[in-house]
Amino acid sequence: MKTLKDVISLKFKTSESEGVIFHGEGQQGDYITLELKKAKLVLNLNLGSNQLGSIYGHTSVMTGSLLDDHHWHSIIIERHGRNINLTLDRHMQHFRTNGEFDYLDLDYEITFGGMPFSGKPSSNSRKNFKGCMESINYNGNNITDLAKRKKLEPSNVGNLSFSCVEPHTVPVFFNATSYLEVPGRPSQDLFSVSFLFRTWNPNGLLVFSNFADDLGNVEIDINEGKVSVHINVTQLKKNRIDISS
């Protein structure tokens, strides 16, 4: 396929921060890859470079953040030559690709949800997408519908299910005045706690617990956007430990 114009659109939701959403490459060195990196959306595009190195076509654009929130996000990529409009959740970013070429020359298939192992270092270091996609449209072709009706030839659908399974985790929302109190374990020597959290507030108390027998307490909080752990032990000379990240 050698195209001057491309329109690619889809919706996705995931709780993973890394994963290839779609990928295509050609023998001329052209490629297009859309992926999640650290919960941000990254588009890598190359319409061609030359061996002399005077024309360098690689272009990389990053947009969005916290996209691993298991909510639906919509993407539209509109390309006309070197002019690109990248729209994420109605926020459009316009840019021009590097290099001097206008056509995207893809000799191989396009893959959604991952990239085939090509032996190149870039292919085995990237994770496949884990989550849900819908309304995949590539240059006027409804990929989701064609895949469901098995009208894509050749295709390797793999272990796909045409439904979106909700995660088993149950989130808890705190409104800055609420809290959740759970019973402690007075006979345990080990204190262990783990959780995921997301907030826009730079300050707040995350966890607090007194130790039994007035031996002290542990506190985990956010202070100016940094997570701090404070451990107070009443029986020791150095009775306070502070860890910040």
From TrEMBL:
Pfam entry (one): Laminin_G_2
**Domain named Laminin G: which ranges?**
1-164
Q: SMART domains, alphabetically?
A: LamG
Entry-linked PROSITE patterns: LAM_G_DOMAIN
| Record's protein name | Contactin-associated protein-like 2
Recorded hits in CDD domains, A to Z, give: LamG (cd00110)
Q: Which InterPro entries match?
A: ConA-like_dom_sf (IPR013320), Laminin_G (IPR001791), Neurexin-related_CASP (IPR050372)
Q: Tell me the organism's taxonomic lineage.
A: Eukaryota, Metazoa, Chordata, Craniata, Vertebrata
Spell out the Gene3D superfamilies in the cross-references. Answer: 2.60.120.200
